[in-house]
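Subgroup meeting minutes
Present: P.N., E.W., G.H.
Scribe: E.W.

1. P.N. recapped why we're keeping a running log of single-chain structure predictions: easier to compare across weeks, and new members can see raw inputs and outputs side by side.
2. G.H. added today's entry (195 aa).
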Amino acid sequence: MAKTKVAVDELTVRALAPETWDAFAALAERHNGVWGGCWCTYFHTMHDEKTFEAESNRDLKHRLVMEGRAHAALVFDEELAVGWLEYGPPAELPNINHRKEYEAGLDRPPDYRLTCFFTDRNYRRQGVSAVALRGALELIAQAGGGVVEAYPQDTAGKKITASFLYNGTRSLFEQAGFTYLRPKGKNHTVMSKTV
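Output recorded in log:
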């Protein structure tokens, strides 16, 4: 399938919810369950709770969405979901990479975490992630707002394969008004913004 040229200003954002589950699931299914069958469940669970099977991950994500315990800003090109950014409070998304290092430098937990971007392969490198980020911040603000944390990769200007950029890039978050707080892991950062 050829890359789809998109007018970014015509994309819309809707919350992941029971009403948008089918669109989300269709996007995940077009990409083998995303990241080898993760279904964007990695940050919901701790490692010892994972089954590492695509079908059980799909079932888990579906259950969490139906219970209102999984949040994401879904990006739509008309009625086709083409990307997302997962967000939620730390209790909803407890599993983060480099956890010990992160917790050692933690003053207080954020109100929300932004954990995982995904963009349809035919829509990449056109600004879908920026639309998802703006949408997530708007949805968080509508829910009462607070301190929002993200853990993007600091690419230092280098081109990095998309599979390593599931947390986005430092420059994307800087453009959205986030403040750099500290490093986390080899190339990741902790960034924050209050909405």
